[in-house]
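[Q] Does anyone have a clean C-alpha cell version of this?
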Amino acid sequence: MSADFAEALKAAAIFVFFLSLGIELRHEITHGSLSKPRQAIVPILAAVGGMCVPVLVYSIINAGQPSAVGWGVPMSTDVAFALAVLAFAGRFLPKAIRVFLLTVAVVDDSLTILMIALFFASSFHVLTVASLGGVVVGLFLPRAQRAARWLNPLANFVALPVFAIVSLWMTFAEFDGKLAGSAITIGIVVAMVIGKPVGVLGTTWLVTKSGLGKLASDVKWPDLISIASLFGICFTVAMMMSELSFGTSPSDHAVANVSVIIGSLASAGLAVIALQIRKRAYVRN
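[A] Here you go.
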C-alpha cells in the first residue's frame, strides 16, 4: 500500500466519521440533550473540562521538549468506541447515562474540530480539510436524520475500521520499539487514563454543585463514576491529532499512535471492570 493511497483512505474515512458526527451534533442541538439549556450546560462544560485537564497533564509532562506539540492528542473521546464498550458492558445502565456519554463525546469531538481550525488549518493537511468538511456538511445536510440511518453504520463499521487498519499499518511500519520512558507515552497514557475521567467528572461536579446546571433525573453519580474511564478512550480523533502534531517526525508519530492504543485499551479495560462492579448493585436490587 502506497503512502498516498493510505492517506487518501484515511481522509475518506475521517470525512465519513465527522459527517456522521455533524449530523449527530445537529440532532442533539435541535431535538436532543443540547436543546435544553440548563441540562445542556452540564455535558458541554464537562466536555470542556475533559479536554482541558488532559491537555494540561500532557503539557506538564512534556514541558520544554519538542514533544510538547502533541498536547492535542489525548483530548477527545472516541464516541464510537466508547459507546461500543458501554453497549457491551453497561447495558444495565439507564438510557440517560448513554445520552450523557454521547453528548460529552460529541461536544468534545466538535470542540476538537474548532481546535483544528484554530491551530492546524494553516498547515492544509488533508485530514484537517476532511474533518472540517465532514462536520460542516453534516450540520447543514438536508434531511440529515434520514441519511444518518445508513451513514452511522457506514461510519462505525466501515470508515472507522479502515482508518484504524491503515493507521496501525503505517504506525508499525515506522515504529522502532522505543517506547518505555518516552515523555510522549507517559503524557498521552496518563492524560487519557487519569486526565480525561478527572476532567469530565470534576467539571460535572463543579457545575452541578454550583447550581449552574443540573443532571437529568435518571443520571446518578455511582453510574457516572462507573463509566468515567470510557472518556479516556481516545482512539480515532487522537490518531488524527497525532498525525497533525507529529506528521513530520515518523518515529514520534509512531510512538504517539502506540501510546494512544495503550491508553485506549487501558481505559476500556478499567471501564469494563468498573461497570462489572456497578452491575452488582443493580443485580442486588
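[Q] Thanks! Anything notable?
[A] Residues 250-284 form the longest helix (35 residues).
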